Amino acid sequence: MSAATDTVVPEAPVITAAGYWTGVLKRFSRDPVAVTCAVIVLLLILSAVFAPYLGLDDPYKASMIKRLKPIGYPGFPLGTDEQGRDMLSRLIYGGRLTLFVGLVPVVLAFFIGSAFGLVAGYAGGRINALIMRTVDVFFAFPSVLLAIAISSALGAGIVNSLVSLTIVFIPPIARVAESATASVRALDYIDAARASGGGALTIIRVHIIGNVLGPIFVYATSLTSVCMILAAGLSFLGIGVRPPEPEWGLMLNTLRTAIYVNPWVAALPGLMIFITSLCLNLLSDGLRSAMNVKD
Amino acid sequence: MFTYLVRRLIYVLPVAIGVSIICFLLVHIAPGDPLTAIMPVDATAEEQAAMRSAYGLDKPLPVQYAIWIGKAAMGDLGKSIATGRPVADEVFAAVRNSLLLAFSASVIAFPIGLFLGFLAGYFRDTIFDRLVTAIAITGVSVPNYWLGIVLVIIFSVQLGWLPSMGAGPGGSGEWTWDYAHVRHLILPAVTLAVVPIGIVARTVRALVGDIFSMDFVQALYAKGLRHSDVLRHVVRNAAPTALSVMGLQLGYLLGGSILIETVFNWPGSGFLLSNAIFQRDLPLLQGTILILSLFFVGMNLIVDVAQAAIDPRIKRS
């Protein structure tokens, strides 16, 4: 045995590098506001999804004699609307369409906008110019105006609302995706990957997506509240969801005539929109700081 | 500065053309024939064909666009189907009322937003900062069409202090700056101001907070400058960005007041637009959207140029 082998080699300290997502979860769970908002949003979504199993009154059942009853009326904890339908039931059922039309466009726009942004940011040159100048044109419209313009051209209806809102949110997401991609694209390791023969798709998939998806995702979550307000706004204007479906924006509109009779019942659907949008905003802010994303 | 201006103008032209193409296409993405809105249901095939060529709808799309944009450039946006009046007249009368509303909302929103944002950025991480942050996030989260209804419930229905509808005592007559008219302006302007208050306060807070943590502020103190002089430097640094946010918000207010105008029956462009939607008055719809979006493009241009004029860092890049 040689002396060399006798020397005790200190064992290398085991570094259990906590994963990025573990850290995000940890930071997020320490943010009471964000957690509260996450719980509220989750409850709203769950109650909307499972509305038929909650033992509520039929949200479509009208009653001529029980119209516009106040909050706390026996049998109708939140009163009734202008057709005598149970407000509690309609508000919970209303969450189904409102949340659906309010959230799905952002999800769709997230995928489509990210794809455009990734391609534009990676390809650069003419492809970038073509995509980004088109995006600029859509940016030239205030979002409310663009949503209303497309929705009114297409006509009322759930699918048309989804289409118009998705179109509204693709450009901003594409812009964020493009600038994130372009800044990663300029880093040396991408050149190294290219030099070692990586194709464009491989580089995007392996080296870029992981680095840009976080910021794009956080940005997309910050759009959900605007999208909710816009979606309900379209229904409020009569170019979104059609009656007699329960939907918060539409309910707010049909109850407008009731503000002289039963003002606080008339304000309830809007309150739901407000609570949801506030929680979505705070949730997005919490995610942003938990994921360490800077503007 | 001049080259910057020219470059910016060259850039804005294709955007404006793109905007006009989208406005033009709006009518054509509408399901069904654009004619169905105009023609009686029992119109014969010949009558339809005659109407089609009268409106130029039998020509290829690019030709139709060229004709439409050519006329639009001369101030002719066609005639409203519902009223038969020139679209341009209707739109400009309405835009004037919308501008009045948007400016009034800005006058309310910008000083409040700047004040709150500056103080929050200055007293970072204090109770005051948290309070302003809470106000700001409430402001950007509230559906303002609902807020308008709530304000009507409180101030018109319950208290009876302010009118809830229209732009004047006689419905929608000529606007004059007297007590009776201004009373009508208060509720819609306040409602419209809430979102920009939130956005301006939020932006300025972040901006001022960042600037205070920059090295040059330390250097100024080290140099022995008085506190008020350091503040002057900070304000000058924050001004260009704050200005551009406010400019953009003014543009958004004009385009975004549609819902508020509907709530308050304010005779502006949004109100015109929602009427156009219900009557499927496509020329009116097209014209209103074109004017509003071109106004927004122009507003962005002004903001950029103004920002470059006061911020020497931009011209160099």
UniProtKB/TrEMBL annotation, chain A:
User: Where is the protein found, in the record's own terms?
Assistant: Cell membrane
Membership in a protein family: Belongs to the binding-protein-dependent transport system permease family.
Which GO terms of the cellular component aspect does the record hold? Answer: plasma membrane
* Mode of membrane association: Multi-pass membrane protein
Q: Which InterPro entries match?
A: BP-dependent_transpt_permease, MetI-like, MetI-like_sf, OppC_N
Span-the-membrane segments of this chain are: 33-56, 97-124, 144-170, 216-241, 261-283
Q: Which CDD domains match?
A: TM_PBP2
User: Which residues, if any, are the signal sequence?
Assistant: none
Q: Supply the name of the protein.
A: Peptide/nickel transport system permease protein
Q: Does the keyword Ion transport apply?
A: no
Q: Name one Pfam family in it.
A: BPD_transp_1
- Write out the GO biological process terms: transmembrane transport
All residue ranges annotated as the ABC transmembrane type-1 domain in the record: 95-284
UniProtKB/TrEMBL annotation, chain B:
Q: Which GO terms describe its cellular component?
A: plasma membrane
Database matches in PROSITE patterns: ABC_TM1 (PS50928)
- Entry keyword set: Cell membrane, Membrane, Transmembrane, Transmembrane helix, Transport
Superkingdom classification of source: Bacteria
Per the record, membrane topology reads:
Multi-pass membrane protein
| Annotated ranges, domain ABC transmembrane type-1 | 95-303
Xref: PANTHER family: DIPEPTIDE TRANSPORT SYSTEM PERMEASE PROTEIN DPPB-RELATED
What family does the database annotate? Belongs to the binding-protein-dependent transport system permease family.
Name it.
Peptide/nickel transport system permease protein
